[in-house]
Design goal:
alpha/beta, Rossmann fold, 6-stranded parallel β-sheet, globular
């Protein structure tokens, strides 16, 4: 089949079942864009306003569907603009394919437009290589069928991740007689099960545990293992807590659910996790926030807690904590093995256990603590009040998207999710600017479901231009902006770690006054429904109006910016070094870092 390099790329994306390709045409990808133009009946090209937003959209789409999308860019700035989106996908183990234009092979090293070449010829692409699971620099058209096939296998096999393919302009435009790969003929089948002896040891530990806890990571969602997780939890009566990436894997209204541990954790999650006699951790990597910067006795007490760690990536097992049993395998396959072993033992009914009663009591106490941090009479309204009132207004399967900051922290502590792939959040890379484009990707993936983005004002301004994308393609997401006129999560951290007088460069000021754009009016100018509110009683009418608008909608909520009404308390511990010249605070920090700290 005689095809250009760009046509090979387009045809393979179609064979892989990609319904969309996202990007911005430029001189470095003109041939690629033209190949997409000729195939609009089979793959739809969506323009974004920034390449990083395209990567976030593809990321959001993948997190809902498990199907990778491709982002195409020109040479130079266009390609490098994908860096943050690719890094976010890499850290959170999601699959995105970047197709980046580059200098013609025969022109490399001459310093052509947008080429970086002082150290190596056409060196731009190397900046992306640490941010992806695998990268290919294609130097001849004949390589492309194999490279495209391998890229999709790399992204999806094992622990998922992004990939990048560098496409010199002349490779895109040249033609050759090639045979395209058939994806099904190269697709690995099946999921790796755990070692039977290790599984038996895990079953024995869980069956005899008095205070078992299951820590759920994002790997459970990736492996579609929620049903098996529930069976193991109910067979053992274990309390179930989650990492950021694991939210939604286990229903929040289940009696065994106990929220989160970690530096953004809850009183119930932290107490249960640090007092567990057996901890089953599935599909997680024990990042510093989950582990409260590894302070003994804060999130976990390993040892004496016996850790069973299940992960597809063997390098994660034993990396941060010693294991009693380490099992390499797919989360669904291993949980099903454990469930089968527990069924054979005929485990007792957990519903009348004293441990379940304790879990329920700890959850009630946490709910009471939250109520103490909500004051519905406060104007502007508190974030916690908005989250509490919002949940009943949304359908059970609503997809909620968030980035970093106080909003994300409070979602982890108090917003209920009931189904997997309904909580889409920027996890380990803690990326600002993720919410709006990722919400658009989620809406592409699930056009018949509600998609709501919850975002701070500083975060929103990093990619607010994508309201244009939402309007042009009629993607009726609802974006709720929590406007506190600053980087308030960082301001709160400055004050908590360094003292209240140290808040600096985090408030948005114009001369001596607080400053904010009128986001609701800006949204209206883009063509969205827009409304600004500041009181608790205004939220429900605003949400209902946004749902009825049947077009992209922005609800700007002026939220309280006066500490401590800006959020809920951080109950875990996070290692934030204090400068040595703050003598007393430095001494306190060193004590906390070096001692067991109980909350």
């Amino acid at each position: 089949m005689q095809l250009t390099g760009a046509e090979i790329v387009a045809e393979h994306l179609i064979r892989e079942g990609c319904p969309y390709v996202l990007g911005i045409p430029g001189h470095g990808c003109l041939a690629l864009a033209d190949a997409f133009r000729g195939r609009q009946d089979r793959i739809t090209t969506l323009q974004v306003m920034h390449e990083s937003a395209g990567a976030h959209m593809a990321d959001g789409y993948y997190r809902v569907t498990g199907q990778p999308l491709a982002v195409f860019t020109s040479i130079g700035p266009g390609a490098l603009n994908t860096a943050i989106g690719l890094a976010t996908a890499y850290v959170d183990s999601t699959a995105v394919l970047a197709l980046t234009g580059d200098t013609h092979m025969h022109m490399a090293g001459r310093g052509v437009l947008q080429e970086i070449e002082r150290r190596w010829s056409a060196d731009n692409f190397r900046a992306l290589e640490p941010l992806v699971k695998r990268a290919w620099r294609v130097t001849s058209i004949e390589q492309l069928p194999r490279v495209m096939q391998r890229a999709f296998n790399y992204m999806r096999a094992g622990r998922p991740g992004p990939a990048a393919i560098n496409l010199p302009m002349d490779v895109q435009a040249a033609s050759a007689d090639v045979e395209l790969a058939v994806p099904a003929e190269h697709l690995p089948m099946g999921a790796p099960s755990g070692d039977s002896q290790a599984v038996a040891q895990a079953v024995e530990l869980l069956a005899n545990a008095q205070r078992p806890v299951i820590l759920v990571g994002g790997g459970v969602i990736t492996a579609n293992a929620s049903a098996a997780l529930r069976e193991v939890a109910e067979a053992t009566g274990a309390a179930v807590i989650n990492t950021m990436m694991g939210m939604g894997a286990f229903p929040a209204d289940h009696p065994l659910y106990a929220w989160a541990a970690g530096s953004k954790g809850t009183s119930c999650g932290l107490k249960l996790s640090r007092e567990a006699d057996v901890l089953l951790a599935v599909g997680c990597r024990f990042a510093d926030e989950t582990a409260s910067s590894y302070q003994p006795g804060v999130s976990f007490s390993i040892p004496p807690t016996k850790l069973i760690h299940v992960d597809l990536d063997s390098s994660e097992i034993g990396k941060n904590y010693p294991v009693a049993v380490g099992i390499v395998g797919d989360a669904q396959a291993v949980l099903e093995q454990i469930a089968a072993g527990l069924r054979e033992r005929g485990q007792p009914d957990y519903t009348s256990s004293d441990y379940l009663a304790e879990i329920q009591q700890l959850k009630r106490e946490w709910a009471e603590q939250l109520e103490r941090h909500r004051d519905d009479s406060k104007v502007p309204v508190m974030i916690s009040t908005v989250l509490q009132q919002l949940r009943p207004l949304l359908e059970r399967d609503t997809i909620v998207v968030s980035s970093s900051g106080n909003v994300q922290a409070q979602i982890i502590q108090e917003f209920e999710f009931y189904q997997p792939r309904t909580c889409i959040t920027a996890g380990g890379f803690s990326t600002m600017g993720f919410t709006l484009p990722a919400a658009l990707g989620a809406k592409l993936a699930a056009p018949d479901r509600q998609v709501v983005g919850l975002v701070g004002d500083g975060d929103f301004m990093m990619h607010m231009q994508e309201l244009s994308t939402a309007v042009r393609y009629n993607l009726p997401v609802i974006i709720i902006i929590f406007n506190n006129k600053g980087w308030i999560s960082i301001r709160d951290l400055q004050m908590a770690a360094f003292g209240e007088q140290t808040a600096f460069a985090t408030d948005f000021m114009r001369e001596d006054e607080e400053y904010s754009p009128q986001f609701a009016e800006i949204a209206q100018d883009f063509g969205c429904h827009g409304q600004r509110i500041s009181r608790a009683e205004e939220l429900e009418p605003a949400v209902r109006a946004a749902l009825k608008a049947e077009k992209p909608a922005v609800i700007e909520v002026l939220v309280n910016r006066e500490f401590p009404y800006t959020g809920t308390p951080a109950l875990g511990w996070w290692d934030v070094p204090v400068p040595a010249y703050m003598v007393e605070r430095r001494a306190q920090y060193e004590r906390e870092r070096g001692e067991e700290k109980l909350t």
